[in-house]
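Two proteins follow. First one:
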Amino acid sequence: MPQQESGSPRTWGGLLFAAALTAIVFAHPSPLDAAVHSQAAGVAGPVRTFVGPDGNPLPFENDDELMEFLRTAEVIDASAIGGGINSSQKMLLGKNGVRAHAIFREVDETKRDTSLAGRFYPVFRDSYLFECAAYELGKRLGIFNVPPVVLRRINLRDGSLQIWIEDVRDEEEQGVKPPHSRAWVRQLRDMILLDNLIFNIDRNAGNMLITKDYTLVFIDHTRAFQEKSEVLNPERLTHANRDVWEKLRSLTEQELRDAVRPFLTPGELNALVRRRQMILDHFGKLMETRAEDAVLQ
């Protein structure tokens, strides 16, 4: 279920192709590299600026401040969002003179003996809780493309409340070549790695937003984190960003479990742990046949 339309599959395919080509050409870091891959202490992450309904930056110095706003701001207005797999609501929040849009997802369904995209699932779960799991896991890997999100009860209904991305490029603008190709490719690699780790079966053009500064925003993870002990698309795991790889490798099993335990069932947790090891083994084999620097960049 897309937060908002972000371009057609054809447009997205063109961007992927352009990224693959430019990855070879550009060898120097760009300003966006530092913004997306901050080496800040702990898991605080880089300072990210989000835009309000009036087009001006929201006055939050870090994700924690924004998340506190999401937890406590008054709901001024709400409207249903059409399209996608599950209905959700776009909400206008207000607190201390600050206004911001957010998206409220409340889907929490479990189906049994379900087949999707050629895979069989004895248990298939579609849940707002996975939004928080994706955000928390991304932070610990240094992947800051998932917007801040919190759990919240609104009108006696539990769900996830995530900041709305206002400054999204329209379809025509998305066809323009990103100015910092290396930074763009790094974001694509992170998306592929994260999607395989969390078993995200629902990545599509509507769930990848592109902002005015060419930050790639990953949204809608309600169908990820299935109880599948397999890597989703191993053929796409050909390269990784070294800093993200090092975080994935150094993350202990206990740290991994603790990061997402509030949002996953024991079976989903165990499957995540196994997929992490499978991804580590996959890249280990790649580096047996190719130079490490050719795999980790």
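Second one, unrelated to the first:
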Amino acid sequence: MPHDDQKISRSGWRLLLKGNVIWLGVVSLINDTASEMIFPLLPFFLVQVLGASETFLGLVEGIADSTASLVKLGGGWISDRFQRRKLLVGIGYGLAAVARPLIAVAFLPWHVLVVRFSDRVGKGIRAAPRDALLADSAPDNYRATAFGIHRAADHAGAVLGPLLATVLLIILGQRLRVLFALAAIPGLLTVLVIILKVREVIPSSDSENSARLLNDSVTGRHSGGESERLRPVGSLGPRFLCYIGVIAIFTLGNASDAFLLLRARQLGVALTLVPLLWGVHHIAKMLWAVPGGVLADRFGPRRAITAGWLIYGAVYAGFAFASQPWHIWALFVVYGSFYGLTESPEKALVASLTPQSIRGFAFGTYHFAVGIGALPASLLFGALWQAFGVGVAFLTGAGFALLAALLLPAAIGRAQKRIFSSGS
């Protein structure tokens, strides 16, 4: 039996380390290199160069993420309806690659808002089809690990981007607009990789029937064939919707990371070191991504997610009471473990709770819940910071994380037990 387990393990890892899992990771690596050349510097460009307020910064980030969420819902449904996930992934990455560098020609705060809106529309188009394609491309027992590999590649790009930005800032003499324009080069490479390397996955009848039976065992009702494909809301199931509800509660306390960078500058981290700080943070996220997925596959995602949310609450409390620049560096490193313990497990649970025929819509619903809460979360955080100070803002975020961690076991505990015991 141990020999058979080792054989299965080797076979599963071989499937992960080729095909769509790897190439979608490469796409995310290149895309995040472009994105993270800009994002760590965007709060200061808005506030210090264009004269925007902290509240407007929250508005920009909130509208950007909420826009992406609305589009993700439609993008996921379309990819299910026509089974053309690769096309939507390519369109989404292409739109972002074209829109993002236009920040270089922004001269008023609302210009940045328009560019961020366009960039997030691209993200909204691609996110749910990409995650569904990734889930379809991975063995069931390695799904969280597959998402972990993808997130590790994504975070690797987020490390390269700030490092590249730091070098360019030194060479260019802090000419931010030129740096923003250069981000177009890696952005456009993503489209080329998608065209040449990413492949559609044709659903097999066996995996489709297996996924339907799994969904029936969790939701307590039967699938509806073609009508299910046309009316996916009715087939998501109560456990999935309870899970999404808890995700939404956590999201209300999860404001844009732009505020963390603003806090870093407030405590004396030099502007030229901000991209490096962001890169160190993403190194921590990258190192935790695969182990987080492996832990979720081994012990179930609920434990990993709960641990991650508790770490998030502790880190936000730390940002509230930090008083020295080294505190910020330490907190950013620890903050990376929160992402490793939540990003891949959350997505793996979405895939496990839904059949393949509506998986795109399920991921769209998940991304919608995360993103639609971004606007009130960022606005609330910015308003609390401006009215009551940084401590109240960060402690409020920590409180939402603690509440979500307490509610998660009641929402999905029994569903998780039934799902993962069936696969053992």
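SUMMARY FIELD: The radius of gyration is 21 Å. Confidence is low (pLDDT under 50) at residues 1-8, 205-230, 415-424.
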